Amino acid sequence: MPNNIVFNNVAENLKTQIYGTTSTGTVTALLVDNSGNIQIGGSITSTVTGTVNISGGSITSTVTGTVNVSGGSITSTVTGTVNVSGGSITSTVTGTVSISDGSITATVTGTVNVSGGSITSTVTGTVNVSGGSITSTVTGTVNVSGGSITSTVTGTVNVSGGSITSTVTGTVSISDGSITATVTGTVNVSGGSITSTVTGTVNVSGGSITSTVTGTVSISDGSITATVTGTVNVSGGSITSTVTGTVNVSGGSITSTVTGTVNVSGGSITATVTGTVNISSGSVSATIAGHGFTSSFATLTANASAATNTLFYFDTSQFGYNNYSFYVKNTGTATVSVRLQVSPTTAESYYINDTTAEVTLTQNQAIVLAAGLFLNYTRLRVLGTSDATVTVEGYFNGQN
């Protein structure tokens, strides 16, 4: 190493030549780059404050600052930011970790974005998973595009497929599959069936529902078995129920024990009724004390000049009556003569007098006539005793 001081007495211009020994014992000069920096191959162990660029190999260090590694791996305790383009990193980090590939296992306070693979973590915040599955206890919102999630959730869970089992306070919308839950609120089911104890409103477009309900149940198809306090509207089919209130049946029949009013527009009704039955048209056949009873009424007029006077007849064979009679009352001022006649047909020429005697009634007098003979038809004949017009009221009563 020549001494340049002989030729130059300026310290800044002092130049030296430094040699080193290789692993084989060969002495060689140390190399520098164009800027005068010493070039080092292999590895270095050092405590560094600043920036260290390593193009190859590895570095083990305690670093405060930034470490850029283009290849290989780095093991370090870091406070700050670590960017890794390939390989893997194991670290305890306070801040943000961005991983383009591979996997990370960490306890994180903040945000973790995973584009692929899976993550297992206890997280307070938001976790977005595009594929795979996540198992977690979460306070917030979890969006799952596929697969399934098992969780205790306070908030909203949207599941596009599969099934969810959960205790939920709020709203659950399910496009397919089934749900088993205890729900306080509203459950809308577009298809399938639901079995639940519900306080509120349940709308079922198809299938059937079995429930104890206080409110209104509308069913477009199927059947319902329920104990209901309120109103039940049935558009078709039949209903068997014990009802206190009003039952409207548009068709079919109803069998019920009813206290109140029953309106039947068509068909028939069989009932044991305590109260009043009002029939606006038609006829009624009732069982009274174990017997069928029928009553008919007519107002008759007559006078003595007519050979055959106005008659009131009844087909006494059509209901198989065991007992029947005619009640007659003279409601006019003139005296009237009445008697019974019988016939096998409705033809006038076939009628004959019954064995009962002819009776004369003065004004407001009344009598009950019971036929002594039995044929198909029995009629009440009314005759006036003078030229004055007479008026009577006749009633037929039959019992089988």
What features would you describe in this structure?
It is a single chain. The chain has strands spanning 19-21, 27-29, 49-54, 64-69, 83-84, 112-114, 127-129, 142-144, 157-159, 164-165, 179-180, 187-189, 202-204, 246-249, 254-258, 261-264, 269-273, 286-288, 291-302, 311-315, 323-330, 336-343, 352-353, 359-361, 366-369, 377-384, 390-399. The protein is an all-beta fold. Among the domains are: 1-75, no CATH class; 291-399, Sandwich (Jelly Rolls), CATH 2.60.120. Strand 18 (286-288) and strand 19 form a beta hairpin. The protein has a five-stranded antiparallel β-sheet with strand order 18-19-27-21-25, with no helix packed on it. Strands 20, 22, 23, 24 and 26 form a five-stranded antiparallel β-sheet that branches. A three-stranded parallel β-sheet has the order 3-4-5, with no helix packed on it.
Helical region count?
0
> What is the CATH topology classification name of the domain at 291-399?
Jelly Rolls
What is the arithmetic mean of pLDDT? 64
Strand fraction equals 25-35%
Unreliable residue stretches: none
Q: How does the helix and strand content classify structurally?
A: mainly beta
> Ends: how far apart?
150 Å
Spatial ordering of strands, largest sheet: 18-19-27-21-25
Summarize the amount of helix as a percent range. Answer: under 10%
Instruction: Supply the CATH architecture of the domain at 291-399.
Output: Sandwich
> Which word captures the global form?
rod-shaped
Secondary-structure element string: EEEEEEEEEEEEEEEEEEEEEEEEEEE
Number of strands: 27
CATH classification, class level of the domain at 291-399 = Mainly Beta
Radius of gyration: 54 Å
Major sheet, described briefly? Answer: 5 strands, antiparallel
